Amino acid sequence: xxxxxxxxxxxxxxxxxxxxxxxxxxxxxxxxxxxxxxxxxxxxxxxxxxxxxxxxxxxxxxxxxxxxxxxxxxxxxxxxxxxxxxxxxxxxxxxxxxxxxxxxxxxxxxxxxxxxxxxxxxxxxxxxxxxxxxxxxxxxxxxxxxxxxxxxxxxxxxxxxxxxxxxxxxxxxxxxxxxxxxxxxxxxxxxxxxxxxxxxxxxxxxxxxxxxxxxxxxxxxxxxxxxxxxxxx
Length: 233
Known about the structure:
Strand order of the largest sheet: 1-2-3-4-5-6-7-8
Distance between the termini: 33 Å
Number of domains: 1
CATH architecture: 4-Layer Sandwich
Oligomer: single chain
CATH topology: Metallo-beta-lactamase, Chain A
Radius of gyration: 16 Å
Number of helices: 5
Strand content: 25-35%
Structural class: alpha/beta
Number of strands: 15
């Protein structure tokens, strides 16, 4: 398969990348830290919207994806700002308990929301936590997501370490993978996972305080994987 060229939209305060799919353009707009927006088939899909980001001029959400309960992922203030009549909110059960109208999906499930197929992927810590015997992210509480948008499969990791579930992903066209300590994983560990499932394009994000060049250097030699560095901070 020939991977279509990704170009950056110019002349806006929110630069975007554009990917051609079998069903038109997919526009990817980084916002801040772990927050970004996808625009596809006339829909604006906001991922983990957080008030720390600049949302001026961006459309309200047709869909909101929330990965976990932590403040930089579940920000009810920003969720309510972006909501409009008919907005679909997709979340794990732990989030849905405090987000009105959220529709739930659990690790390993695949469902269709508003005509978009979404698969929930486990996201969790393997070794890191606030104290012995506890983890920052327990398995089953939060979701990563794989969205099918036309002929493209887009993966959002959520806050996770390099899990077997991530390594086992297949046919991922675009991936967003976290890397920061102490809550998720260092860049080298993130690179290990990316090199295992080999997305065609990888956006490192949620990397505040990390040496992002370490990740880039560890991935750049992997055949078929292109690293896309964008402004998240």
